[in-house]
Amino acid sequence: MAESQTATTYPTAQQYERWKDRAKDFGMSVSEFIQYMVEAGLKKFDARVEADESRQELRQQRNDLKAELEHARDRINTLENRLHRTERETVRNFVQDHPGSTYEDVTQHVIDSAPDRVNAHLDALEGDAIETVNNRYYPTKSSTEEGISDAA
């Protein structure tokens, strides 16, 4: 191991606290941090950073993404409303076609016509919220991370 030599510096209290925090972030002592930073400075690297994109370009990208997100949210709301509306329409259409139907009649119709509607729902959800593996349905990873609930 190389022989070490003491070097003294007199930073302001504010500088020292900043150095101490940064050293802690790197898992170093303040002395090690100062030593590494001085060596890095001696390598005469250019500390200036050139932005890959201008602020205007970044703003435009942000605005584009916000517009895309808003469009996606509107589309999702429209599809969810359509999905829920189809269930109500099934009941309403049956009652319109069969005035005076009993609760049991309506329930039986909903039960009898459920497979067609379930297929449509599964087709709409497949890929985004559910996936099929060996003819069994599972939630997708993204749907469980987003916390998609049955109440939606």
What attributes characterize this protein structure?
disordered C terminus; mainly alpha; 2 strands; 5 helices; 152 residues
Description:
By secondary structure, the protein is mainly α. Helix content is about 65%, strand content about 5%. It has 5 helices and 2 strands. The chain has helices spanning about 15-25, 30-40, 55-95, 105-125, 140-145; strands spanning about 130-135, 135-140. Strands 1-2 form a two-stranded antiparallel ribbon. A hairpin with a 2-residue loop joins strand 1 and strand 2 (about 135-140). The longest helix has about 45 residues, at about 55-95. It is elongated and about 100 Å long. Residues about 150 have low confidence and may be disordered.
Short description:
This protein has about 150 residues and is mainly alpha-helical. Helices cover about 65% and strands about 5% of the residues. It is built from five helices and two strands.
Topology of helices and strands:
Elements: H1 13-26, H2 30-42, H3 55-97, H4 103-125, E1 130-133, E2 136-139, H5 141-146
Low-confidence stretches: 148-152
Average per-residue pLDDT, rounded, comes to: 84
- List the strand order in the largest sheet: 1-2
H-E string: HHHHEEH
| Strand percentage | 5-15%
Please give the alpha-carbon distance between the first and last residues. Answer: 66 Å
Largest sheet: 2 strands, antiparallel
Structural class: mainly alpha
* Shape call: elongated
